[in-house]
Design a protein that fits this description.
The complex is a heterodimer of chains A (about 550) and B (about 400).
Chain A: E1 2-5, H1 9-16, H2 19-25, H3 29-34, E2 40-42, H4 44-47, E3 71-74, E4 83-86, E5 105-109, E6 115-117, H5 119-122, E7 129-136, E8 145-151, E9 155-159, E10 165-167, H6 169-172, E11 183-189, E12 198-203, E13 215-216, E14 223-224, E15 237-241, E16 247-249, E17 263-269, E18 278-283, E19 289-293, E20 299-301, H7 303-306, E21 322-325, E22 334-337, E23 346-352, E24 355-358, H8 360-363, E25 374-380, E26 389-394, E27 413-417, E28 423-424, E29 438-444, E30 453-458, E31 464-468, E32 474-481, E33 493-498, E34 501-506, E35 521-525, E36 531-537, E37 543-547, E38 554-558
Parallel strand pairs in A: 32-38
Antiparallel strand pairs in A: 1-38, 2-31, 3-4, 4-5, 5-6, 7-8, 8-9, 9-10, 11-12, 12-15, 13-14, 15-16, 17-18, 18-19, 19-20, 21-22, 22-23, 23-24, 25-26, 26-27, 27-28, 29-30, 30-31, 32-35, 33-34, 33-36, 36-37
Chain B: H1 26-39, H2 51-59, H3 63-78, H4 83-95, H5 99-115, H6 119-132, H7 137-149, H8 153-165, H9 172-183, H10 187-200, H11 205-217, H12 221-234, H13 239-251, H14 255-268, H15 273-285, H16 289-328, H17 332-340, H18 346-358, H19 362-375, H20 380-396
Helix pairs in contact in B: 2-3, 3-4, 4-5, 5-6, 5-7, 6-7, 7-8, 8-9, 9-10, 9-11, 10-11, 11-12, 11-13, 12-13, 13-14, 14-15, 15-16, 16-17, 16-18, 17-18, 18-19, 19-20
Classes of the chains: A mainly beta (about 550), B mainly alpha (about 400).
């Protein structure tokens, strides 16, 4: 079944009534050319998303104060417009009774280009020291729920379906020891393909503010924040869904006994086309982890053997954000990880059979991040040329970098792909963008105009929303809908066949750094490309084809019964 | 991704904490400096003043400046770690028109500071020296190297370029310039500088291996292979070059030769974990599961051991630093109490000696240093401190 969502009313009216104003704020065709089709504009203020992150700086150099927080895009009220959820942090350590003022905030997309703060109305303003967020449907009622990875007890807020949330942390079974420590991010996937979604929670390190390690700045000789080294790693947690978003900790039973790194990023994705989702975890200075699904919902650690644990020359890196997609057009999923400066970000090209080649050097992907500390990392087609691009939020962890000409505030990086696995920055800087201290990054087509916009959390600073106004190419969007508990089609692989080739997208819930992006599928392509068909391989194994789909709109596609 | 020039010289492989780049990699810089300073032209600034020559020199001055100079030289003996004394002495020497002596003293002392990993102090002295004689290419070069060791690449660039402009014949100026440009992320500028260095040195090992490494970093595997092969021929036991060659061969898909080169590296440096990794990866790709597994096990063992020892070392270092900060803030008793609560290691004992000295308890300070010598008799720096402290005590008596 296909339900076509019409272009929003404001879109037409903006052209007819406010056209001049809209045009004046968008990049000119010449600018777009220099930017190779991208046209990003800072839009947080004008859309009404007014949020300032509080890192809760105490002067005691608690490490969590450096980590920032996440952003999640999901349609909490089911009106077809993506809403924005922002995680708050400070003060640190969080008072036992919760903060007096600052909370996480929910911004409802009003569908006319703006947002309204509905935190109080929805009851979604959790008050722990926040880190990561995952917005997705945990229980199959088609209403996105919210998982909050906190320093302290994690929370699961369930969507009641009436526009409000209730805290179901206790009932969900996630209140285990590890989840009350320092978790950083979460991802969902149907690990055992039983129809409901299982949860992987990345835990950063053992942390006790009473025993914060002591480090001196090598240049100033004053106390500063320690890196990850003095901290002990802590086991991640795999929660198997027992149905209805009630979880059991099956970390060891499922084969994750080696998941003892300093975890910051995670995603579920099928890396070998066997339809069983695998798990990839980015760790900070310990091996990144690849857990291969054995085809029965249990996993085998192939991290080292596969080549995705460390850099090309065998060095563990400061893994933060993770992204997945087909960067070289060969139809399989490649992996990318954001790292510290000098290490550079890493691009692992899938060679098949769980062999990956670190191609960061030759592809141009790594060099662009040499002077930047990468956190949030997303992969999407920002200029609708049919090739996957990257957006990386950057910013140092400390105010005074130990390296000369490397600064605390850094510019975010947009890398455009050529479809063959090579990347370069456009000739124009990101518009209206000053260097900042970026952390969580997630994309969403919040204005439903067929291009990915980017939400960026800044540590101790105001949230940034980069609206994409590209005029390049054409597009096709899909919203998957299943009657199973996996209502949003997580784990599905969607292929678009055009006269210019085949594009593939993997439907994932949770990725980047502490964040979750638009779960819908968005394809961009040349205007002169002839569209043949879309094929959806659902997580259940069912295959669905849509011939000559209508373009420049979002289609809701229901999984066949 | 392949390391940058200074980082990649780390022969011990994984450093753990360095990975997050939240710590410096001074050992690497020291290694580079050792390699280059030794080969560099020490020039006219090698003679260091002795006490007797100092007395002769001072005799030519006025009685008051002579006394002042002698006093400064005495302080240099007891507090050789204080650069301010050298600067004061230089001023006096210049005031009596003995600028060459001042420069000799400043250059020699700065070289010692560089050797002991104290580049900031070297920068202080060399800045003074360059101020006295800005047209001297050797002093400019030395200042550039000191800034480099201090990881202040922006500050290093000027003196290095000035040294070249002034006609420095020392090829290490080009190699250092290439390295700081690379470290600053200016690879496209570093490449021609390295090429120039290769020509200037008659294709010496160092610039060949550095340019090879840069091209490897950029994914230009074919040319990197050629350069690194040549560098390896010039210095066949240089593990860093051989490792880079193995990586370049792997990148250019010359798998058999890459495997052979990795094997040679692990023979020369069995604890170089990243070589075991490269070998393991290639053996796995070749279908040699057993061989690959064995190499991965060695790699894993080495990495995890390094990670844990590094973690413990960093915690200990932090606690010693904590005591040091207390000392700087005048909390001497608290610092001693804090150090007493730590496990007794050489570093803890050194900090204790410093704390006792600050408290005026010289006997206790000596005792701490003696215990440190017992714990690690090979630590020459500790022995020197002990000798220096005993001299100080003898003088005060």
């Amino acid at each position: 079944m296909i339900e076509r969502r019409a272009r929003p009313r404001w879109w037409w009216s903006s052209l007819m009534v406010g056209g001049l104003l809209v045009v004046s704020t968008k990049a000119s065709p010449a600018q777009q050319d220099a930017c190779r089709g991208t046209a990003l504009t800072e839009a947080a203020d004008e859309t009404g998303i007014l949020f300032v992150h509080d890192r809760g700086e105490t002067g005691n150099f608690y490490n969590p104060e450096t980590m920032g927080s996440g952003v999640a895009w999901f349609d909490y009220d089911g009106d077809g417009w993506l809403d924005c959820y922002l995680v708050q942090s400070g003060p640190f350590p969080p008072p036992a009774e919760g903060r007096a003022a600052a909370t996480n905030q929910m911004f409802r997309n009003t569908g006319d280009g703006g947002f309204e703060d509905v935190t109080a109305r929805t009851g979604a303003g959790e008050m722990g020291y926040g880190q990561g967020v995952l917005g997705a449907d945990f229980d199959g009622d088609r209403m996105p729920d919210i998982y909050l990875a906190n320093w302290g007890v994690d929370r699961l807020l369930m969507n009641r379906g009436d526009g409000t949330y209730e805290d179901r942390t206790t009932e969900s079974g996630i209140e285990v020891e590890g989840a009350s420590g320092w978790s950083s991010g979460a991802a969902l996937g149907d690990a055992d393909r039983d129809g409901d979604l299982d949860l992987y929670l990345v835990i950063y390190v053992e942390h006790d503010p009473e025993n914060e390690p002591f480090c001196l700045h090598p240049s100033t000789g004053e106390r500063w924040y320690c890196g990850p080294s003095p901290f002990e790693p802590k086991m991640d947690i795999f929660f198997r869904n027992q149905g209805g978003a009630v979880f059991e900790d099956e970390t060891l039973e499922a084969g994750f006994e080696t998941a003892n790194g300093k975890g910051l990023g995670v995603l579920f994705v099928d890396l070998n086309d066997d339809q069983w989702p695998d798990v990839y975890v980015a760790n900070d200075m310990t091996f990144n982890l690849l857990f291969v699904n054995k085809g029965d919902g249990t996993f085998e650690d192939l991290s080292l053997m596969s080549g995705v644990a460390v850099s090309r020359d065998g060095m563990p890196e400061a893994g933060m954000g993770v992204a997945v997609g087909d960067v070289d057009g060969d139809g399989d999923a490649d992996l990318a990880v954001a790292n510290f400066d000098v290490q550079t970000n890493t691009l692992y090209i899938n060679q098949g059979d769980f062999f990956f080649e670190d191609n960061s050097a030759a592809s141009g992907f790594g060099a662009a991040s040499f002077n930047y500390v990468g956190f949030g990392l997303v992969m999407a087609d920002f200029n609708r040329d049919g090739n996957m691009d990257f957006f990386n939020g950057t910013g140092h962890t400390v105010e005074i970098s130990p390296r000369a000409n490397v600064y605390y505030e850094q510019p975010d990086v947009l890398l455009l792909g050529d479809g063959m696995g090579n990347f370069s920055e456009p000739d124009c800087p990101l518009p209206n963008q000053r260097p900042s201290v970026s952390r969580g990054v997630a994309y969403a087509d919040y204005d439903n105009d067929g291009d990915p916009d980017v939400g960026i959390q800044r540590s101790g600073r105001a949230f940034s929303l980069l609206r994409n106004d590209t005029r390049a190419g054409s597009w096709l969007g899909l919203r998957l809908w299943s009657d199973t508990p996996n209502s949003e089609g997580v784990g599905a692989v969607v292929s678009l066949r055009t006269s210019k080739g085949v594009q593939k997208r993997w439907v994932i819930a949770g990725s980047s750094y502490q964040s979750s992006s638009d779960i819908r599928v968005l394809f961009g392509f040349d205007k002169d490309a002839k569209i043949h068909e879309v094929e959806i391989l659902w997580q259940s194994g069912k295959v669905q084809q849509i011939h000559q789909p209508p373009l420049e709109s979002y289609l809701t596609v229901r999984e066949p019964l | 991704m392949t390391r940058s020039p200074l980082l990649s010289l780390m022969l011990v492989g994984f450093s753990g904490s360095g990975g997050s780049s939240r710590r410096l990699c001074l050992p690497l810089l020291a290694l580079v400096l050792a390699l280059l300073l030794l080969s560099g032209n020490a020039g006219a600034w090698e003679i260091e003043p002795t006490e007797s020559s100092a007395q002769q020199e001072a005799a030519a001055s006025s009685p008051s400046s002579m006394e002042e100079e002698l006093e400064l030289r005495r302080r240099m003996m007891t507090h050789p770690e204080q650069p301010e004394i050298y600067l004061e002495l230089a001023d006096i020497q210049v005031s009596r028109s003995a600028t060459d002596e001042a420069l000799t003293m400043l250059a020699g002392s700065s070289r010692r500071f560089l050797g002991s990993g104290e580049p900031k102090k070297a920068v202080m002295l060399l800045s003074k020296a360059v101020e006295l004689r800005p047209e001297d290419p050797e002093l400019q070069l030395l200042l550039g190297k000191a800034h480099t060791q201090n990881r202040d690449f922006e500050a290093a660039e000027g003196p290095l370029r000035k040294a070249l402009e002034l006609g420095s014949q020392d090829p290490s100026a080009l190699v250092f310039l290439g390295a700081i440009l690379w470290e600053s992320g200016r690879m496209e500028e570093a490449e021609p500088v390295y090429r120039q260095a290769i020509e200037a040195t008659g294709r010496a090992h160092m610039p060949l291996s550095q340019l090879g490494r840069l091209l490897l970093w950029q994914g230009q595997y074919q040319e990197a292979t050629e350069l690194l092969r040549e560098a390896a021929q010039r210095s066949p036991r240089d593990v860093g070059t051989l490792f880079d060659l193995a990586e370049a061969l792997r990148g250019s898909n010359q798998i058999e030769e890459a495997i052979a080169t990795y094997r040679r590296v692990v023979l020369l440096a069995p604890n170089l974990n990243k070589a075991h990794y490269g070998l393991a990866i290639l053996l796995a790709r070749q279908g040699d599961r057993e061989g690959s597994k064995a190499e991965f096990e060695i790699y894993n063992h080495l990495i995890l051991a390094a990670e844990e020892s590094n973690r413990m070392a960093e915690i200990e270092e932090g606690e010693v630093d904590r005591a040091g900060l207390m000392l700087r803030q005048g909390q001497v008793e608290e610092a001693i109490a804090h150090l007493d609560s730590l496990e007794e290691t050489v570093e803890v004992l050194l900090a204790k000696a410093q704390a006792y000295r600050a408290a005026g308890e010289l006997e206790a300070s000596v005792e701490s240093l003696q215990r440190a010598v017992v714990l690690d008799p090979s630590r020459q720096d500790v022995r020197q401190m002990l000798t220096s402290l005993r001299m100080e005590m003898a003088q005060s008596r």
